[in-house]
Amino acid sequence: MSVISTKLRLVINNLSKINLRAKQIIRHGGYYSSEYLEDLGKVSTKFEVTKDPVDWKCVENILPRKTIPEPVKKDEYPSGWQPQADDMQSRPYYIERTRNHLIPVYLDLAQHNIRRHTIIRRVKGDIWLLEKEVTEFLQTLSNKPIRLQVNEFAGFIRINGDFVNAIKYWLKNKGY
Amino acid sequence: MLANILPKLRNTTSLCRYFSSALTTNENIEPRHLQYPSVYQKPRQIWVENLDSIDERKLGLIELHPTVFAANPRIDIIHQNVRWQQLYRYVSYAHTKLKFEVRGGGRKPWPQKGLGKARHSSIRSPLWKGGGIAHGPRSPTPHFYMLPFYTRINGLTSTLSIKFAQDDLHVVDNLELPTDEKSFLEELVKSRNWGPSVLFVDDTDIMPRNITAATDEIKHINLMPVYGLNVYSMLKYETLVITRSAIDLIESKILENLNRNDDKTFTGKYKVNQV
Amino acid sequence: MSKSADKALNLLRSLPRLCLGNIRDNPGSRSSRKRGRGQHGGDKHGAGNKGSGQRQNYMRLGYETGNNPFYLRFPNEPYYKGHHLKRQYPPMSMLDLQRLIDLNRLDMSKPIDLVAILNTGVFKLKPDQHQFGVNLTDEGADIFKAKINLEVQWASELVIAAVEKAGGVITTAYYDQHSLQAMLNTRKFFERGIPIPRRMTPPADAIEYYTDPTKRGYLADPEKISEERLVLAQKYGYTLPKIEEDKTYEMLTQRKDPRQIFFGLNPGWVVNLRNKVILKPQEEKLVEFYQS
Predict the structure, then answer these.
(1) Which of A25, B25, B209, B262 is most deeply packed, by most CB within 10 A?
(2) B163: closest CA among B89, B229, B255, B95?
(3) Hey, which chains touch B, using 3+ CB pairs under 8 Å?
(4) In chain A, which among 71-90 make CB contacts under 8 A with chain B?
(5) Are residues B170 and B213 in the same domain?
(6) Which residues pair with C202 in a beta bridge?
(7) Burial letters for C19-44: b for 16+ Cβ neighbours within 10 Å, e otherwise?
(8) Considering Cα of A133, then A136, then A139, then A144, what sign does the dihedral take?
């Protein structure tokens, strides 16, 4: 490690001898203390400008995408993710996937994790039929009565209790 | 109530069939290709109209994306957007003086004890008439805040959907008028029942000469590039007339922003001093 | 089939035109900041009687009315010495990685390194908070089935075994703070016009990890790594897939130079995104520096 640091020190010392605008290092610099950009004029350091397509392809590979890509159709998805079924037009209600193509069922925690609510968002169509089916399904899992709130206009159902995984499993089996 | 509905009935399908031979033409209007097609909602259709003549001519039908033009009409989100647009650049210059700023009041008015009067240390305390104000406005007070990103997009889609649903949205192929006289435009707007105030939206900020000259003199008919489209303006003007290219732009912008990859960079708290 | 949005839009067709004068927020969403007056909101205005509560003269947080408070009772404990200076590797599970591959967010046909993971936008890294990269955890190691060329910063033995069982290749590599800042948002970094920095060698306490073939360190001997692959296959009981006979062998064996941050781009180069050109230094001393 010490060998590397002495080598670096040598190189940096040599660098300062080259005609580069080596600016004074300002620690904790701010907006008002920074100098304006100046045109360096004729730069005497030798450099080449290349337009190699192989290099440019490497650059394009590492630039971030602007929009989220569409998932590709495969036979099996090992992570357990499942794309939505194709027959959504004929369904009475529709649960739209999120922009990341996942199921919009969330856990709402409050009061130091004592209050646990499950929220099914992005519901379109006959939300009352979905409410009926969900209560039927969840009643088999719980002895206590299933308490829930339906907001038809905003398109969500808020269920008292933590049934996130159960509802995700149920929706996946239905093809949503 | 009936007076509100009758003008709107003009554009419904039943009456259109009666007028169709006079109003529609066989001009080829290129069908639109919708990005991110919606699975559950069907695309909406709208007539493309002309601005060449005072009489209305329907040039063809184009499709509109349901996520943008048939979104849930959230009146509360529209209100939040309008409030934000009005407040974020508002600076209040109301100013009141504090007790040390009011002239005088350095001396104790009367001794602490012995007089039978209440104890006071200055005549300009907030208790006194003419004294300073304890918690009053202090100028300049900015009311800047940023509405969350998706609330702003929701505001745009809700307003566009409401304009489309209430028949106040019209699509034209371009903003080329035959003359630059303002009477032509006024007659056109009146005969088509477009409401007194009209907002023409194009995709660029350089507009054709004739329409610029005509609307220059009319205060309630204005031009706007699509990047300036906002909730407040869409509600202020009764009718919204958008060109077909502007519709392409606004739809693609909204849909791309709804499917962005890097949304974690701007969904957090808005930092004024950081890029 | 009635949809609530369509129901509402249909309703609006017969209602008056929406304008600035007939919109409002949801009732109860906004409360006024006015001072309460009258029997219930007024009198003491919720501040109680006398004391620091009514006089807004509160005791400082943690104060225990005179006795030695809890936060001052205990001196520095030796077990957490230097915790604020330690390197952190925020976790990402193999299940997350598999999900990203299934959702087409990560391209299996190209090497997956920290840059690729950061570009998905799913993994957040904060280098200024002593976070040095990805720690791949073993949740989802049983269902992992992707043949990839993976480069992470920390991986346990089970994770390495799971990746190699699927037919892939895993390496652990170190990136210093400057390199990480460049990798966070490559577009922003190139727009700064700074030459790509040289990746620094790991610090003294990390060198042991990154030169260890059992951890598949990038500074380790490749021959010893291939020996360790066999050892792991025997330990966890799977047949080691022969990557030499694989079609994607070239991609799987692609590796970065210890001084390289991005695949295919050398340190010292300046990328011009606007004109789509790359500026490469030719000055002897610069070339020597960037190649050392």
Answers:
(1) B262
(2) B229
(3) A, C
(4) 84, 88-89
(5) yes
(6) none
(7) eeeebeeeeeeeeeeeeeeeeeeeee
(8) positive
Q: How far is CA C92 from CA B246, C152, C223, in A?
A: 43, 10, 29
Are B150 and B201 contained in the same domain? yes
Q: State how far the alpha carbon of B7 is from the alpha carbons of B11, B24, B161, C19, in Å.
A: 8, 19, 19, 17
Residue labelled with tokens 């976790």: C91
In this structure, the answer to whether residues B135 and B206 fall within a common structural domain is no
Same domain for B197 and B243, yes or no, is yes
| Neighbouring subunits of C (3+ Cβ pairs under 8 A) | A, B
CB-hemisphere CA count at 13 Å for C281?
A: 22
Interface pTM (ipTM) of the complex?
Answer: 0.85
User: Three-state DSSP class for B181?
Assistant: coil
- Please report, for residues A111, B169, B186, B274, the alpha-carbon distance to residue B211 in angstroms, rounded to integers and kept in the order given: 60, 19, 12, 41
Strands A148-151 and A156-160: antiparallel
pLDDT at B266: 85
Task: Say yes or no: B190 and B220 in one domain.
Answer: yes
**B258 interface with A at CB cutoff 8 Å:** yes
Angle at C150 between CA C149 and CA C154, to 5 degrees: 155
Q: Which domain holds residue B195?
A: 22-28+38-86+146-261
The C residues from 104 to 133 touching B (CB cutoff 8 Å) are: 119-121, 124
Q: CA-CA distance, B182 to B210, in Å (whole number)?
A: 9
The answer to whether residue B266 sits within a structural domain is: no
pLDDT in tens, B50-59: 999 999 999 9
**What pLDDT sits at residue B49?**
95
Domains parsed from chain A with CATH numbers: 88-174 (3.30.780.10)
CB A23 within 8 A of CB A16: no
Q: Report if pTM > 0.90.
A: no
C contacts of B75 (beta carbons < 8 Å): 18, 23-24
Q: Please state at what angle helix A2-17 crosses helix C284-291, rounded to 10 degrees.
A: 160
User: pLDDT band at B275, cuts 50/70/90?
Assistant: low
Distance CA A61, CA A55 (A): 10
Lookup: tokens for B186 = 């006024």
- Could you tell me the CA-to-CA distances from C5 to A134, B57, B66, C12 in Å, in that order? 22, 31, 11, 11
Contact A67 B261 (CB under 8 A): yes
Interface of C with A in 247-276 (CB under 8 A): 262-265, 271, 273, 276
Q: Please report, in tens digits, the pLDDT of each residue of chain C (292 residues total).
A: 347 899 999 999 999 999 999 999 999 999 988 888 999 989 999 899 999 989 989 999 999 999 999 999 999 999 999 999 999 999 999 999 999 999 999 999 999 999 999 999 999 999 999 999 999 999 999 999 999 999 999 999 999 999 999 999 999 999 999 999 999 999 999 999 999 999 999 999 999 999 999 999 999 999 999 999 999 999 999 999 998 888 889 999 999 999 999 999 999 999 999 999 999 999 999 999 998 8
**CATH number of the domain within which B252 lies:** 3.40.1370.10
**B169 shares its domain with B241:** yes
Q: Are residues B241 and B159 in the same domain?
A: yes
B189 residue type, one letter: V
Run of H or E residues at A119: strand A115-120
Q: Structurally, how many domains does chain B consist of? A: 2
- Angle, alpha carbons B15-B67-C102 (nearest 5°): 145
Sign of CA dihedral C2, C4, C10, C15: positive
